[in-house]
Amino acid sequence: MSALSNEKSEVAHASSVLSSHSRDNLERRLVRKIDLHVSVIMVLYALNYIDRASISSARLAGFEKDLHLHGSQYATILSISSVGFIVMQVPSNMFLHWLERPAILLPFCMVIWGLLSTLTGFYTGVLLCRLFLGFAEAPLFPGSMFLLSGWYKRDELAVRTTLVTCGAVLSAGFGSLFASGILTGMQGQLGQASWRWLFYIEGGITIVVAICAMFILPNFPHNTRWLTPEERSLAISRLADDGYGRMDGSGKRTTMQGLRNALSDWKVWCFAVALIVDSMSLSFVVYFPTIVATMGYDKTVTLLLAAPPWVLATIGAFSLSRYSDNTQKRYICIAASNAFAALGFIISICTMSMIARYLSLFLMAQIAAGQIILWAWVNNTFSREPAKRAVAIAVVGAISGIGNIIGVFAWPLSWGPTYRFSYAICLAALGVSTAMFGIMHLHLKRINEQIERNEQNTKNINDLQDPVGFRYLV
After folding, report:
1. What is the pLDDT, as a whole number, of residue 375?
2. Is it true that the peptide bond before 102 is cis, omega within 30 degrees of 0?
C-alpha cells in the first residue's frame, strides 16, 4: 500500500533543521511517546499466553476427566495449536508488510482468538478450537517483532522486546493466580465446570482489550497519525542513522522480494533450526502447573506457587536485556541465561527434595531472559530490509514451532512425578541450541571483521555494500 515516498526529503529536513541539542531532547520525548503506545503489546502478550496456557490450569480442575481424554490426547491438544503458528506466521507477516497497519491487523486477530478461546466442548470440539486458535494467534508474535523493528534502533531493541514480552513471562505466573480464583470460585455456576468458566472469562477479557488496542497501537513512522511532522521526520532519520538508510523509500523491496531474499539467506535457516531445538527446551513452561503439582500441594496452593519464579524471571529479563543493549552484546547474555536454566534442569534430575526442586523452578524460569534477547538478536541480524526482515522473523518463528510440537510429548504422566527423562531432554536440547547460537555468533563476528576491512580498503564509500559504521550485533 502506501510507501515512504517523502522519506528522503524528511530525513534531510530533520538533519538540517534540528540542532544536535534539540534533536537529542526531541528524540528522548519521541522514544518515551513510542514506549507508551507500544507498551500495550505487553497486555496483548499476557492475554495471548494466558489463553494458550489456560488449558494447563484447567488440567488441574478435571479437564481431562470431563472430556474423557486418555493416552496422548492431552498432549495432542497442546501441540495442535502449533500447527496454526507454523502455517500462518509467514503469510501474516507478509500481509502486514503489505498492509502497513499493525494497529488494525493485530487487534483483529486478537478478537478472533478471544472468540475461539471461549469455545469448549467434547474432545473433537476442543481439538478444533485449539487448531484454529493457533491460526488466529500466529500473527501476534512476528507482527509485534516487526513493529518494534520499525520504530527502535538496534541498541534499543532488547529492552523494548523485554518490555512488550514481559507480559507473557508474568502471565506464566500470574495467569495461574487468575486461574486459581476462577477454578475455586466458579465451580458449578450455571451448571458449568470451573475450567469451562476459565475459558469463557479469559476469552471475553481478550476481546474487550483487543478493541481498546486498536486505538492505542501505532502503525509505522510514516503512517502513524499521532506523530507531529517533526517527530515523524526524526523517527525516520534516526533509523537511517542506525544503518536502516537503504531499507525503504524508492528502493523499498516488495513483499515477494522480501520472501525470496529471506529464504535464500542461510542465517535465517540457521536461526530457525537452532530455535527448533531451543523450543524443545522450553516445553517445561506449558507443563509448569503440572511440575509444581509434583510437590504434593492442593490445586490452589500449586497455582499460587507457580507465580514467584516468573516474577523473578521478569526482573532478570529486564536487567539482562538492559546490559545487552548497553554493551551491544547478545550471545553472551543468551548463554548466561541458558546456564541458569541448565542448572535448574540438573537439580530437578538429581533430587526430589521439595526445597531443591522449587529452587530449580526459579533457575529454569531464568531462560526467559535469554529468549527475549535472542529475538532481539534475530531482529538485529536482519535489520536492513523491512520486507526481508518481516519474512525472516516469521520464518524463524514458524519453523521453531516444530520444536513446540515435539516438546509437549516429552512430559507423559508415566514419567512423573520425577520427570527426570523430561528434564534430561530439555537439558540436552538447551545445550545443542546454545552451541548452534555460538556458531552464529562466530560467523557474525567474522562478517564484522570483513566489513571493517572493506571500509579500510575502499577508495569510494559508495562501493560499500553496507553503510559506513554498520556492524552486526553479536
Report:
1. 93
2. no
User: How confident is residue 3, by pLDDT bands cut at 50, 70 and 90?
Assistant: very low
Q: Could you tell me the three cell numbers for 223?
A: 503512517
- Between CA 317 and CA 373 the distance in angstroms is 8
Whether 245 shows a pLDDT value over 80: the answer reads: no
- Residue-wise over 212-246: b if at least 16 C-beta within 10 A, else e? ebeebbbbbbbbbeebeebbbbbbbbbbbebbbbe
The confidence score (pLDDT) of residue 172 equals 67
Nearest to 220 by CA among 103, 384, 91, 392: 103
The amino acid at 380: N
CA torsion 456→458→459→461, rounded to 10°?
A: -100
Instruction: Decide: pTM greater than 0.70.
Output: yes
Could you tell me which of 439, 413, 386, 345 has the C-alpha nearest to residue 253? 386
* Measured distance between the N- and C-terminal CA atoms of the chain, rounded to whole angstroms: 34
Pick from 7-11, 311-315, 358-362, 390-394: least confident: 7-11
Q: Rounded distance, CA 76 to CA 84, Å?
A: 13
Backbone angles phi, psi at 139, to 5 degrees: -70, -20
